[in-house]
Design goal:
Length: 348
Amino acid sequence: MSESAPLPSLTAREAETLVRTVAQLAGADLPLAEGLRAAAGEAGSRRMSSALRKVAGAIESGRSLDEAILECGPRVPKFLAGILRAAEKTGKLGVVLTEWVENQWAVRTRWREVSAALAYPAISLGMTLAVFLFLALTVAPAFRGMMTEFGLRLPVPTLVFFWLGDVALPATITLLVSIVFGLLVLRVFAGRAAISQLISALPVAGKLWHWSGTAEGLRGVGLLVENRIPLPEALELAADGVSDAHIGQACRQLGKRVEQGQPLWEALLRTRLFPMAIIPIIRQGEQQGTLDNSLRTAARMLEERVHNRSTLVIQILPPLIFLMVAFMIGMLFTAIYLPMSGLLQGLA
């Protein structure tokens, strides 16, 4: 593929690999264009190799690094352009890009931790509900026919079991269709931000999602502010780089308020878009002129919350799931045993 040919859009992971390569070259004080061409020969995919060569060609033709990288497709976050401009101005290109890559790695690590905390309980609950639904749809009708034929008086657990067999399938289909339709409507008419906000409202995973997205946004803003990007512009650029669309929307709202002259801590207090616990930290940073450090401190605090909540979920959810499974098994046993016991006594 020639350097002038259209380049397929990079994935988020490939964009991060591209930035990491630039960071390593800049940190080693190597010529970017030559280093990128050398890296292209060792790239793991043809698309990655083409992207590296394209960026190298753009730099050799006189375009800036941020323009060259942003040409690699929409998955390259726009706020990266602000970081690149700031890094080139301050002469700390390698250091700044390395920190950005480390922040992205921390986000993935955090979500792997969250996923690991929720995966086992979610799978266990899903399998239990699936088995219960299967028995309600297959066993209940045959069992009901036999009980009706013998004219037995059915106890309450058995009636409940039969009732679940009647409503389980239509209720499940209605619920799934409603969820899918609702998500499609939200995505089309309200965008990704509305879906992110909905996830934030979920009982267990919601806080983890919100805190993690907020920490990612705070780190992005802190990195830009540290490299002399004005705060309103930093908030606007960070909005394009954060993975949580709701947090990105919140950053834009905060950027508009700050641009109108409102301090960041006051904008946070009035909008209540971010956790209130970070406001004293942000306020102290603005008053002392250490806002970048305060933003990182607030991000670390929220990341610690994510870690602690994940640990709590791992400790509490499995026993609750076990109790729910035991209740379902006990209900099935009671629903079948009581009528059969009455039938055997009647035959005796």
